[in-house]
Amino acid sequence: MQKILSALEIANLDQIHLEKLEVSNHAFMELVAQRFVNWYQAQGFLSTTSVVVCAGAGNNGGDGLAIARILFSLGYPVEVATCFAPEAKLSPDCAQNLSLLPSQIQRYSLGTSFLPKEGILIDAYLGLGCTGPLREEAKERIQIMNSFGGTIISVDLPSGLPADSILSGVAVKADLTVTLGFPKLSLLLPEHAEYTGELAVLDIGFTEEELEEFSATTFYLEKKDLIPLHRRFHRFAHKGDFGKILLVAGSKGKMGAAILASKAAFRTGSGLVTCLIPEEERAALAAAVPEAMCVFGEQQEFSAYDAIGIGPGLGLDQGEAMKKILSATRKPVVMDADALNCLAKDPSIWTLIPKGSILTPHLKEFDRLFGVSQNHLERMAKAKACCLGYGLNLVLKGANSLCSLSDGRQVFNSTGSKYMATAGMGDALTGILTSYLGQGYSPENAVLCGVFHHGLAGELAGEKYLRGTMSHDLIEAIPETYRLIGLD
Question: N or C, which end of the chain is more exposed by having fewer CB within 10 Å?
Answer without folding.
Answer: C
